């Protein structure tokens, strides 16, 4: 089996990367939840036991449908065990993205990490974060005047905050065809998740010679939720609040001109912004070979651009697409007619369901879908359209920021 190959979003799911929420989600400085989860302003706690139950239910469905489930922490641990020399390289990148400034703080964090007994503990420490109290910085003999004047380091404050959003595995890395994009996240702290995956991509033997279409060192923001594989030759990229046009320019150049890429057409779709729906995959989901779920906000007046190779090597030619979304998607997936399904205009129960990942569907195979259990009207519409649905509750993990697709990174799918 290929290590990575995703030419579409609906072929049978063969291998998928996930992360089961762990103790990192319970590490709050002084018990103050908002300091650890600033992106959950309406929440006051994270129920880890419930989140783990949700995640276990999701992975049970994945395995029952024949997918190999790969845990992120285990994959990183395997990489470091295979290539111990990668540990220092990872730590340097990771601490740089923690914005730790100055030699004293950097050296203290490095000493703490270097004391990890093995690769497993090293990875656990990266995920759990580094408090000042974990290091020797708050020892009274290190900074005696600061200790005497009660201005020393607070032992409960984090030098490196926990990776408490790492279970959203779709965003940091994307698989496009037989290559990958190491994305540059909008929120700076999440770039540490990309650091982990960059180490895997560069040092794990299963990823040897995997081409990279976009590099994490880019100056421009790109997130995986805005990348939707339409076919072996076409990919859709959302122009959104999380993915900027400059990044799309760079990724398109890599896809259209990169060695080993089969992509000939990149469709850039401007993404509406509504509530917690941030990425293209919250508005557009392929669910069968010729069927898509499309949010009415996107379908109503889509603004789409088609990017192809220009005559000059490395150049990109751009043309606006004036056709309707059905014709655009039909051309991208082989030229035949496609069916667009929407769940209504957002009134009644759909006001909740659109904001609860109704379009954030994870296909397990063509017409075989993992969906949010709470979206009763949307799920009924899918069944009426001939689809098989596997409902799963993920409320504690996502709080409306995506559906099951946001919690899974497909590594290998069958071609259609």
TrEMBL record:
A GO molecular function held by the record: arginine deiminase activity
Tagged with keyword Oxidoreductase: no
UniProt entry keywords in alphabetical sequence: Hydrolase
Gene Ontology BP, a term: L-arginine deiminase pathway
Pfam families assigned: ADI
InterPro entries documented for this protein: Arg_deiminase
Key word Coiled coil present: no
PANTHER family per record: ARGININE DEIMINASE
Family per similarity comment: Belongs to the arginine deiminase family.
Protein name: Arginine deiminase
Species in which this protein is naturally found: Adlercreutzia equolifaciens
Taxonomic lineage of the native organism: Bacteria, Bacillati, Actinomycetota, Coriobacteriia, Eggerthellales
């Amino acid at each position: 089996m290929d290590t990575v190959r995703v030419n579409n979003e609906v072929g049978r799911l063969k291998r998928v990367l996930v992360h089961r929420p762990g103790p990192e989600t319970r590490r709050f400085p002084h018990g103050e939840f908002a300091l650890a989860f600033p992106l959950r302003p309406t929440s006051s706690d994270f129920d880890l036991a419930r989140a783990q139950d949700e995640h276990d239910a999701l992975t049970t469905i994945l395995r029952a449908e024949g997918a190999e489930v790969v845990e992120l922490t285990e994959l990183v641990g395997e990489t470091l065990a295979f290539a111990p020399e990668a540990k220092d390289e990872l730590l340097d990148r990771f601490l740089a993205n923690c914005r730790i400034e100055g030699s004293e703080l950097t050296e203290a964090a490095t000493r703490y990490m270097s004391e990890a007994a093995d690769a497993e503990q090293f990875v656990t420490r990266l995920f759990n974060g580094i408090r000042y109290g974990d290091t020797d910085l708050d020892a009274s003999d290190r900074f005696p005047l600061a200790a005497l004047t009660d201005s020393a380091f607070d032992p409960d404050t984090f030098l490196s905050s926990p990776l408490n959003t790492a279970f959203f595995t779709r965003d940091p890395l994307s698989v496009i065809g037989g290559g990958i994009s190491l994305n540059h996240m909008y929120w700076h702290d999440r770039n540490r998740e990309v650091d982990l995956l960059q180490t895997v991509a560069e040092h794990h033997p299963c990823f040897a010679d995997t081409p990279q279409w976009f590099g994490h060192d880019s100056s421009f923001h790109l997130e995986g939720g805005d990348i939707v594989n339409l076919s072996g030759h076409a990919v859709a990229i959302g122009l959104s609040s999380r993915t900027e046009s400059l990044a799309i320019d760079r990724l398109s150049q890599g896809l259209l001109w990169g060695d080993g890429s089969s992509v000939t057409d990149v469709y850039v779709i401007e993404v509406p912004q509504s509530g917690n729906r941030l990425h293209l995959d919250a508005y557009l989901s392929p669910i069968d070979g010729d069927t898509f779920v499309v949010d009415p906000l996107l379908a109503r007046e889509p603004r789409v651009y088609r990017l192809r190779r220009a005559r000059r090597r490395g150049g990109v030619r751009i043309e606006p697409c004036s056709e309707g979304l059905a014709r655009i998607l039909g051309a991208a997936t082989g030229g035949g007619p496609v069916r667009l399904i929407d769940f209504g205009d957002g009134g009644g129960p759909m006001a909740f369901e659109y904001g609860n990942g109704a379009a954030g569907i994870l296909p397990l195979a063509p017409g075989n879908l993992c969906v949010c259990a709470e979206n009763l009207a949307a799920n009924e519409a899918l069944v009426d359209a001939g689809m098989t649905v596997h409902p799963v509750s993920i409320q504690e993990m996502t709080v409306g920021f995506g559906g099951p697709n946001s919690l899974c990174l497909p590594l290998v799918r069958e071609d259609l």
